[in-house]
User: Fold these one by one.
Assistant:
Number 1:
Amino acid sequence: MFDLILSKYNYWIYIVMMMIGFYAMIGKRNLVKKIIGINIFQTAIIVFFISTAVKKGGTLPIIEHAHGHGSHAVEVASYINPLPHVLMLTAIVVMVSTLGVALAIAIQIYRRYNTLEEDEILEQRKWSHNLPR
Amino acid sequence: MVPQSPALVVVVPLIFAFLSLLFGWWRKAFSYPITIIALSLSFLASIHCLYTVLTSGTIHYYLGKWEPPWGIEYVVDHLNGFILVIVSFVSLMVAISSKRLVERELPEKVVYFYTIFLLQVTGFLGIVITGDMFNLYVFLEIASLAGYALIAVGEEGAPFASFNYLIFGTIGACFYLLGVGYLYIKTGSLNMADLSEILPALYQSKVLLVAFAFFLVGVSLKMALFPLHVWLPDAYTYAPSAVSALLAPLMTKVGAYVMIRILFTVFEPRFSIELIPATTILGWMAAGAILFGALLALAQSDVKRMLAYILVGEVGYIALGVGLANRNGLTGAVLHIMNDAVMMLALFLIIGAIMYRSGNREIPSLRHMHRRMPFTMATLVIAGLSVIGIPPTCGFFSKWYLVLGAIDANKWVFVAVLLISSLLNVILFFRVIENAYLEPREEEAHEGVEVAVPIEEAPLSLLLPILVAGAGILSLGILSGEIISSVIRFAVPAGF
């Protein structure tokens, strides 16, 4: 059991991080904490993708700078898979833009309700609904 | 130009999004015509794509001439060629109608509105046309991020609704991405056609089950399938009128398309139906969505919020067709993607027009509306009848196929659900139509004279798309036999 955790520790880290982020997104009542939760969740996914690419003792998939003057870099078994890295570059861009949009909306919410606590916002919205129109 | 049309469908709105920003900074008035030009070009390109598919079969377009398993491939077959035309047509109609609505509701943000509007449409078209799993994720996020921004500029309560949507949408997109990751570990490929060849040998693997579960939950969140619909009513109620008219017909339909693609193209129908009971679960969720959406719509007095709940039910219809997993059911689902897009376009534009003229959308405030806005209200009646499912309108035909599919699958419960929801929709729409058309009794009795209400139709740029959508509802209904025999018959995945 312990061996199972230790030998694949990066995947366990990914699962734990994902659950922390998921909990923050759903469970926390503060909007900024929710945004931080989104980021932890997405970082966990990056850890997962990068873990899938890694090989023990693997080299770069570039002939010029690799170990052993490039003889390793042309064998599939001995270089690190570059594709998940590239996918994650795109995912990071998506992550940053999500963060930007989320923060911009949080600013709008703060301007309108003067708070970032979900409970207080809901309370204020309930008041504005009961007012006669 | 013509052989490049699959790329042009997506690239034109993307480039024009930046052009509209540039020219918009110079002269505010330019961004509207630029948007119309971009969407018209995109619409023409998608019609050309569908025409090519109909005459000479599936199009495979290699971006940058990189061949499929390595490069990104755009694939247009009967299913997504058909949906491309719907998406670009609906977004063109919304763009035309948006002129006055945006001037009224977002006077300082006209330029940014059109830029994000075009990015939103780029996202939708990209999701539909791409043949690559990761590319689909990127377009999904483009569409979602643009959607969050567009919703957040709406009325009071919109930013908060948009934030909730952002949380749910991000969870959905992340689950989808994880699903892609699990498939990639097992197969080393991201191309849909390639995956569908590699996967059958691995169907016993637990990893595929996990990936499949992630896809199903992620896409259900994006298409707002009950019980994952909680973000939808608030977001679409508080969004600006033009934005709800764009998102309500398209976002959920595009999500439904992704679901059909994953269930029946990436995975074979055999996997989704027999190896795990995914379609059965989907059918029950859909039945829940249909009843729940109609019942909660009954409780609303705000017409726009009522429509949002009706939309939850309509998503249920499409999912039910997918869940039935037989030929008639899927025909109904694909047909309903088209019909519902046109119906929701008409309904949300009508709400926009009513808001534009009266500034109020509570049901009781619709009184005398049939004299004030005769054409708009006539279209409302047509669209309402279509949602209920009365024969000459298009809504009837997709429901008919869904009922046939439910009978074929021997699921009589679903037949009952479909009929009950039609009855509930009758109540829903007659509540609106009664208020708009019938005069209150006591008023006539007391005064004996008709209250004079001047005709104040919606502005032409808004009325025209409403009338086109209304005509579309009728003509698509009459032509539905043609559409099924020439397009949808081939769009239903192989194996049914």
Note: The first helix of chain B runs from residue 5 to 26.
Number 2:
Amino acid sequence: MGDLHLLVTIGGRRGAIPGAQVQSVVEIDQVAPVPQAPPHVAGLAALRSRALTVIDTRAAIGLDPAAFDTEGRAAVVDVDGHAYALLVDAVDDVADAQATATLSGATLGAEWDRVAQGYLETAAGPAVLVDIAQLVAGPALRFAAGS
Amino acid sequence: MDDLLAEFVAETREMLAAIEGELVAWEADPGDRARLDAIFRFVHTVKGNCGFFDFPRLEKLSHAAESALAEVRAGQRQPGTYLVNAVLAVIDRITELVQAIEAGKELPATSDERLIAALEPDGEDDCLEVDAPAGHGSDRRAASSPATSRSIRLPVELLDRLMSGISDMVLARNDLARRLRELGHEAGIESSFDRLSTIISDVRDGVSRIRMQRIDHLYSALPRLVRDLSAELGKQVMIDLRDGDVALDREMIELIRDPLTHIIRNAIDHGIERPGDRLAAGKPEVGQLSLSARQAGNRILLAVRDDGRGLDVDRISVKAVAQGIVTRAEIDALSLDRRLALIFEPGLSTAEQVSEISGRGVGMDVVRANLEKVGGLIRVESEPGEGTLFVLELPLTLSIVAALTVACGIHSFAIPQSYIEEIVRGNSPAIGLHELGDSRFVQFRDKRIPAISLDQVLGRGERLGSDCGSFRNKVFIIIRLAKGELFALVVDRVLDNEELVVKPLAPAVMAIGLYAGSTLLDDGNPILMLDIPNIAARHKLISSLATRRVPSSEKAGVTVDEGETVILFTDLAGQRRAMRIAAVNRIQSIDVDAIAYEGGQYRASVDSMILPIAGVDGPLPDTGRVTVLRLSDGAREILYAAQAVDDSATLGSALVPLPDSELLEGTALIEGVITAVVDAHVLFARLADGAPVSRSRTCRLPDGDAWARGFLAPLLSAAGYRVLADGEAEPVDVTIVCKVDADTVLPGTGAIVHIRADREPAHPGDTSIYRYDRAAILAALGRAAGG
């Protein structure tokens, strides 16, 4: 027995978002760009009567979003009272799985380490359990956390 | 005051209900620190609240309990059963009294002495006589009568949630409206949608009102503050609080509490003199501090007036120069208002000695900054020896903002209307662009103000080209910051005016520093609201006094009144005309269809008012829009039609009268071209009153009276009077007398209007007019002109 997780693909890798934190999965068709925004903030999108801040999860872990196709779907989450849409390559599945806290000693790569809070086994193989707050904070936080 | 009392009772009851459990627990374990603290907080709060009301018994009781508990908290005293009983007995008595207050009954005639004595450490012996608290809990509940007034207390957070729900509903409705429009008309759906729409608007109004609080709530703490401060400083001050029923967003009330407190502290500390000094100056011994409020559109104007010594403009100026805020030369060029406004500059405090109360120079700049943060403004007027007036202008609510939407490339943004001074098209001949070093300045009217393109702010595109053409198809949004500085933000297009429900931004977007919030437009697209003050500060568009007046070196020669400014325009007949700027309120463009000939006069509807319009004797275009100068004499408005507004200029030479034309005051050489100046006074006399007048009426002010020159003269000019310079020998129509005892009224002075400094007449037969009573002054001028 485990918890529900939303299985997604981020930058070509399998990831999982804790299901309890996902409000909905939406299609992002129109994003209003925000000039001067950090790279992982793709812009604003309207969901019903709310404005969502769209976070490109690929950019949030330091990847070039252009290098990966996206089907334009995003997980809507709430961090500190603000609504975000986490744009991913693809939303794959919902899985009932038990997360394991850490991989002892092994690194997933600096950016993945920062956003990972464990991993879980799925039918398709292991997936990195991501910390949505870290994704939303974006790569800039690396310096603050690393020092 | 009833509201406040009800709140006090409600709050006390609420706290009583909350600590009921604590009381029982404390009784069981008197050493329990957390319970002790909770009970201490209760009596402390009751005591504090009693300060506003006249409840000596409650105050004494809570004070005694507080002292006893404070000793326990300090470890000076051990809590024993006797003390617990005594405290509980006091709390029971407080409950009893509060119930009586709530029911509006006489307070029970029981003596509190014994209860208070029992709290004393040496009262231990008596404590045995104290009644054991009789089952707090069931009895107290049973005794409490149902609340007499039908009001409930709600957590603000719940209200906020409700409010944001309603805002979402409004946005959802707008979205739905858009989709319905796209689908085309369907009568059935449309009417029920309209009904839904109306209901949502009603509910939104209702909820907005829930968020409103009477300004009384802001006032409530002030009498105490004034009493304490004036006692401490050895002054006598009476506070007069008016218009307590004006309602304001409750969040706004919290936000202006500190700024207001600061202004009042300053007024008492620096403004109002000591009783002796006041008597010596011929003023009443007791200083007067008055607060009044009124709503003007969606703004609230809060005025704080004292009758103290006023601001010392000279000392402020000297200080500002000493602090390096402005240079000596700049000071001389500043108007009185601007010089007074220097008190809002950081680091300026004119107090000679730093007192406990104020005068550390960290005051008014913070006040202004805090007000600016919520979209408010502050301005100051002052008269030496007469007092100072601060006017705080606040938005009615924080959540709905009137905004202008603009486009820049593919992006659209919203700019709060409160910042916008004027919108000027780049192709207007009134606009000129200059390069100074790496910066761009726009020449507008007689000012040179810094300009920046929104593209550059957004980090895209080139800086504004000064070469002709590139800025001509842009739009210049002239922005006035709360301090009064101007800058121009250059955008591609102006889209629309909208009322926006602004939502906070995600931290990552906020951190960019360019945006203040986001919102959804009616079409469902998100849009960002620009953080104007931040943009200005980042791009160093403003120093404290960035807007320099352009030196008018090229206009050497005779100057009239330091060169009165006129607006140059082309009238409908194609003639070049000038209008004194004092009469021009603003420039608008209206539809030709809005102009109609009715009742022997041309009239035009503008902003849902119907105003007389002049200058339409020439051919009216069949369709399209006409530029109108909107003229005001302070009370009434009329319009003057024009083909285009060309420029502003300084009236450099004396007018040559045109005896044949009644509507023209005369001609003058303006920038080398002979230009006729429209006689605004005749226009008003004709169109607003119907009474023809042949020449400008003249008005004499008291010699050397700074107030009259600074404050009254503009009003008089706007009303069409020509204000005579000191000693100018001209026929005088009206003479203004500011001193009651003026016995030196010269012959040939025409009608006399007496102006007094005090709000109230000095004696019943006093026919003078209070100097800030604009309506009465204008009316008196009207009568004087008629007689």
Note: Residues 419 and 480 of chain B are 5 Å apart (CA to CA).
